[in-house]
Amino acid sequence: MHNLHIKENKPVVFQELTLEKFRDLMKRYPEGRQKSALVPILLIAQEQTGGFLTVDVLDEIASILQIKPIEVYEVATFYSMFSLGRVGKYVIELCRTGPCAMCGGEEILGYLRNKLRIDVGETTADGLFTLRTVECLAACGNAPVLQVNTEFYEKLTPEKIDRLIDELKSKAGKPIPFEETWAGKFC
Amino acid sequence: MGRKILLEHIEVPGISRFNVYRSRGGYETAGRAIKEMTPAEICQEVNRSGLRGRGGAGFPTGLKWNFLDRKTTKTRYLVCNADESEPGTFKDRYLMERIPHLLVEGLIISSYALGVNTCYIYIRGEFKYLVGILEKAIREAQTNGFLGKDILGTGYRLQIFVHPGAGAYICGEETALLESLEGKRGNPRNKPPFPASRGLYDGPTVVNNVETLASVVPVIRMGGEVYAAIGKGKSTGTKLISASGHIRKPGVYEVEMGTPVEELIYSDEFCGGIRQGKKLKAVIPGGSSVPVLPANLILHTAKGEKRLVTFESMEEGGFDSGSMLGSGGFIVFDETTCMVRNTWNLARFYRHESCGQCSPCREGTGWMEKILWRIEHGQGRMKDIDLLAHIARNIEGKTICPFGDAAAWPVASAVRHFREEFERHLEYPVCNPDKLDIEPLFLRTK
Predict the structure, then answer these.
(1) B111 min Cα distance to partner chain A (Å)
(2) What is the reported pLDDT for A9?
(3) Which of A2, B34, B418, B446 has an alpha carbon 20 to 30 Å from B5's alpha carbon atom?
(4) Residue A53 lies in a domain
(5) What's the number of domains chain A is made of?
(6) What is the DSSP string of B37-89?
(7) Any chain A CB within 8 A of the CB of B75?
(8) What's the pLDDT tens digit per position in B239-252?
């Protein structure tokens, strides 16, 4: 998913709280180097616009940072944590690298595909889950490992996967609380 | 040899909080350094300690600090590399999660020594929860006067910011990290100029690993010479080893440099032996980028000496029979592991993570992955094995950054040490039919 293909031609308006957070991030870098805040800002923006970035959002961020849109596009397409296509509410990212793969990660992937009845890169019909494989998450000691929206779940077994999916399904109706650090309300 | 220097207080409940850390003697060293020592004295202690970079390359930290251009009027920076993405390495995460103040204290001492007023911690985006932990530690240090405009009334000012990345292994390479910190794609820069003269925002910059900067605290606390007496030869102090794979007790262990590898793998104090009573087959001793070694060569060098956890001992034998200590990511394989499948897995990792700037790496990693895939899936040809070694040779040393070497070595070493297994795969491709293709049941019934 490294092509920019969602353009809705709708104006993007961030809440004042979010904009304040953006300005706060920009202040961390020297005068004239506000472009440094691009990656942290994109991470917040993605979280607040439903888990993926549209071209409209990227353009808005370019104007906030006073840089050219292409400078935002090239960054958004480079880093693997940015989704440029629609994703489910919960993005399940399973580590597939070395230690995880040899300590049961491959079996967990098979189990997840069967359980959710989707293949890697797909989203369930109810829009809840997107299944992805990612490279090393630096938690090899607790292999196999996955992340749901950047939250770690470690030492996985099929039973734990069952519990996790049930828990996420029951939580789905309720709003997700934002963490302190990148706080802000849904825009 | 379970001497703990870095992780001495890691088991103390609540050590991540300022008060608890302070009550265990935390920030004493930083206070003493800023009040009583000159920056040059601190640099000298680090030089004497023989501390070497813990991120992978093992470059002497004191020397790196000496290279920093102190004459220019441009702003200097210290950047902490917390982009821990090397497969098999998870020590920095452990350290930052459990005892974040140790890193903050190390940053304060190092920044003061380098004459830096702004310091960035570049952390991988997947560690989002750690951003919160670190920012809390920074806030606490600031409230207690160890950070800010006038530290402990000495007039020295320092601010530390946490900067998250967004998922790119290449950003662990120092110049790619600086590019990323400037808000660009993580494409490594040509060297020279080295970051020490022109780094972040064109200013002189030092980039150090989390463990290295945390190690500065014990170095200053006990003095360079005392620290240098720990360890063996030019590998001084202790090293955090992230042990993973088929062992009884995976985890992070602090070992004194010079501990025998055999003790590390089999002693109950550390990894506790191979799980389920299986036999050891091979070990990648320094994160996935370093050459893999078969059991006999990891326990003893080709000369028959015991292999030790030191930079020198790991390299003993060069590329024929040695490896590297790298970042200390110990990945242990038992006898059931298929080396072809494992090498294919790592080749896929490097293909995925290549930034695409240099052709040998961009194309070569893809070719290696394809060839390994077809050997693993029963479509290999005899000449493929030599072809793999040939491609690896043509990536190595022909790229801007060391990523090319990192991608080539695992494949080249696997072919060198496990050639028979590759050949057997050509005849009997399915060595582990359960794993070959985990096709979901619903796809089969469609």
Answers:
(1) 17
(2) 84
(3) B34
(4) yes
(5) 2
(6) --HHHHHHHHHHHT-B-SSSS--BHHHHHHHS--SSSSPPEEEEEE---STT-
(7) yes
(8) 999 999 999 999 99
Token pair belonging to B236 = 């001084």
Beta bridge partners of B332: B245, B283
If asked whether residues A30 and A98 sit together in one domain, one would say: no
Exposed / middle / buried, residue B8 (Cβ in 10 Å: 0-12, 13-18, 19+): middle
Question: Which tens digits make up the pLDDT trace of B412-438?
Answer: 999 999 999 999 888 876 665 555 454
Token match 């600086």: residue?
Answer: B178
* Domains along chain B with CATH numbers: 18-228 (3.40.50.11540), 232-334 (3.10.20.600), 339-434 (1.20.1440.230)
Question: Taking CA atoms, what residue in B is nearest to A62?
Answer: B183
Q: What's the whole-number average pLDDT of chain B?
A: 93
Residues of B in contact with A135 (CB under 8 A): 85, 87, 169, 349, 352-353
Closest approach of B384 to chain A, Cα-based (Å): 22
A101 shares its domain with A167 = yes
Is A33 in the B-facing interface, judged by CB distances under 8 Å? Answer: yes
Interface residue A180 vs chain B (CB under 8 A)? yes
State the DSSP H helix or E strand holding residue B161, giving kind and residue range, or none if neither.
strand B159-164
Tell me the shortest Cα–Cα distance from A11 to chain B, in angstroms. Answer: 24
Same domain, A143 and A99: yes
Please give the residue range of the domain that contains residue A36: 16-76
Q: Flag whether residue B85 sits within 8 Å of chain A, measured between CB atoms.
A: yes
A13: distance to nearest CA of chain B, Å? Answer: 23
Q: Per mean pLDDT, which range of A93-102, B32-41, B200-209, B433-442 is the poorest?
A: B433-442
Q: Does A138 touch chain B (CB under 8 A)?
A: yes
Give the pLDDT mean for B330-343: 93
Taking one residue from A and the other from B, the number of pairs with CB-CB distance under 8 angstroms is 168
Chain B touched by A182 (CB under 8 Å): yes
DSSP conformational letter for A179? P
Query: pLDDT per residue over B246-299, tens digit each?
Result: 999 999 999 999 999 999 999 999 999 999 999 999 999 999 999 999 999 999
Q: Do A72 and A94 reside in the same domain of the chain?
A: no
A30 CB within 8 Å of a chain B CB: yes
Residue in B375, B372, B295 with CA at minimum distance from that of residue B332:
B295
Exposed/middle/buried for residue A52 (C-beta within 10 Å: 0-12, 13-18, 19+): middle
A44 lies in a domain? yes
pLDDT digits over B382-392, tens only? 999 999 999 99
